[in-house]
């Protein structure tokens, strides 16, 4: 494995960390309705747990209401129960095969809690990026020890990895700040 391979692998893993963080941020709801909020809710369908999107159409009725249109009438009660029992704090109401999920307005205290959750997710993403950097640094040091590269090449690769890490952490901070502003906006 060469220095270029180590850097390319580290870059790919850091990009995956950012994508994972973006996915986590989408799960944290703000006052507005978003169909992706229900992506993490699973419902029992013929003996297996599947996401709601595989048994119903999930769409927006308006800025604060999600509509869930089940494909099979008996599934309506199961989907409604799954949404109610999820940790999202939502209270759906069924009207035949259509389930309306109103998004309650967030209190100031709940907004602060969501900011804490967001910061925790950001810190987890930063730790993942730093772990990738550590692994890449160990590979570079191992190449130096095996005399596959010179000390200058090793030092240069460590500097490049640090710059890549700094850039990735800055991107995570930017995403974090944007989500915090979105949560705190009334």
UniProtKB/TrEMBL annotation:
The reply on keyword Cytoplasm is: yes
Q: Where in the cell is it found?
A: Cytoplasm
Among InterPro entries, the record links this protein to:
Ribosome_recyc_fac, Ribosome_recyc_fac_dom, RRF_sf
Query: Which sequence ranges form a coiled-coil region, renumbered to this chain?
Result: none
Please list the GO terms describing molecular function: ribosomal large subunit binding
Among Gene3D superfamilies, the record links this protein to:
3.30.1360.40, Ribosome-recycling factor
Q: Where is the Ribosome recycling factor domain?
A: 21-184
Q: Name one GO biological process term.
A: cytoplasmic translational termination
What are the record keywords, sorted?
Cytoplasm, Protein biosynthesis
Signal peptide positions (record): none
Q: Does the keyword Isomerase apply?
A: no
Q: Name one Pfam family in it.
A: RRF
Return the GO cellular component terms, semicolon-separated: cytosol
List residues traversing the bilayer: none
Explain the purpose of this protein. Responsible for the release of ribosomes from messenger RNA at the termination of protein biosynthesis. May increase the efficiency of translation by recycling ribosomes from one round of translation to another.
Please state which protein family the record places this protein in: Belongs to the RRF family.
Q: What is this protein called?
A: Ribosome-recycling factor
